[in-house]
Amino acid sequence: MWLLINLCAWPLLALFVLLGLHAREEKHTQQWLITVRVIDFILLVSCIILTHRTFGHHPVLVSANLLATITTLLLIEMSFNKKETWRFHLLTYNLLAIIGVCSFGISSYLFTIFN
After folding, report:
1. What is the pLDDT of residue 114?
2. On the CB side of 8, how many CA atoms lie within 13 Å of its CA?
3. How far apart are CA 74 and CA 40, in angstroms?
4. In the structure, what pLDDT confidence band is assigned to residue 64 with cuts at 50, 70 and 90?
5. Is Cell membrane among the key words of this record (predicted)?
6. How far is CA 32 from CA 12, 28, 29, 45, 54, in A?
7. Shortest CA distance to 51 belongs to which of 108, 105, 99, 3?
8. Which DSSP state fits 48?
9. Any alpha helices (H) in 1-115, and if so which ranges?
10. Which sequence spans correspond to the domains of the chain?
């Protein structure tokens, strides 16, 4: 169940981050940021529960998933912070995409292993 929640949260997180970062008005950016933080919380809780339950089977893979998830969430927060001050670079988008895809890929692999 937690793995399915984790897998469903990643595409929603990507969608809401893109909508929030492309919002024209400050008010809309803040609204999307609140939604992103709720999904961040859900994603972090599901990742921690998955790490706790599956660490004995694949410790390196599960640790990499947790590290990539936390890094993605930190980059998202930095992106929203930078959006308020100045236009951030394409490098930020690329880092978010690469680390997010890695986290989603690891979660998908764990889903195939345990189901």
Report:
1. 67
2. 7
3. 10
4. confident
5. yes
6. 12, 6, 5, 20, 32
7. 3
8. H
9. 2-21, 26-54, 59-85, 90-114
10. 2-114
